[in-house]
Amino acid sequence: MAHKIFKKEDFRRDETGIYILEVPKGMVGIGANLIIERQNTDGEYEIVQADMHRHNDNILIKWSEPFDGRLLYDE
Questions:
Q1: DSSP result, 19-68
Q2: What is the pLDDT of residues 27-45, one digit of tens each?
Q3: In this predicted model, what pLDDT tens digit does every residue of 40-72 receive, in sequence order?
Q4: Element (H, E) at 4
Q5: Which contiguous run of DSSP H or E holds residue 72?
Q6: Neighbours of 6 (CB within 10 A)
Q7: Whole-model pTM?
């Protein structure tokens, strides 16, 4: 699987206080094989079940706080 690393700084906060990471749909595709992993303090990754929506040409990943992590997806 391909992956994309993201940082806390990549999230933006919306008016409701939720943090949103925008990922271009063209980069990861629109299939069901998108996995979100959060990086722990020890450097290991854990899978999280974040709220995801498609909006225009982006996939929006929503979480209560920003975090370092990676997206795993099929190429």
A1: EEEEEEHHHH-SSS-EEEEEEPTTS-EEEE--EEEEETTEEEEEESS---
A2: 776 666 789 999 999 999 9
A3: 999 999 999 999 888 888 889 999 999 999 999
A4: strand 2-6
A5: strand 69-73
A6: 19
A7: 0.83
